[in-house]
Amino acid sequence: MMTSVVQESTTTTSPLQTTTTTAQARTSDIPPHVLIVGKKNALDYIAPALFRIGTFGELVVRAKGSMSIVTAVNVAEMVKKDVSGLETRSISIGTEEIVIEGMPRRVSYIEIHLAKPAPKVAAETPVEAPAQPQEDKLAQTASTAKKIRARAKKSTTAAKKRTTATVRKQQKADA
């Protein structure tokens, strides 16, 4: 079951005018490849991050506030370990001024842009190695067969010597 949390924040555009926006209105402005990190554990953001990388090929991890920034960096590092070949395109940091309850507050933010590298397009087709002539293949097969026969001959000769020695020992023992 999915629940939505609506947070209201007030911003002042001029000293006389105050506007109220909701979190739902702000989420429609966020592109689908952006992951906003909050106060949850870093592991809670791994699955959505991997989904975005798999679907869109890129991921932007955004966070505001000191604890969320730490979590965002942890999420980005965990995702880079999970997805091979993922590269960091850019990291932007800064301070944003937000008016909360009539008082201006400065909040730090970070954006980490991760993306899969674009597939390299080969301009030229690879050159294939020339095929070996049929005679070379036959010569290699013949030399391999000779080696196998030589090994078999040596092993049978050694076996005959062992049996001959055993028979001689038995003959001496019987005599």
UniProtKB/TrEMBL annotation:
Residues 1-25, 123-175 are annotated as: Disordered. GO terms for molecular function: nucleic acid binding. It comes from the Archaea. Residues 146-163 have a biased composition (Basic residues). This is DNA/RNA-binding protein Alba.
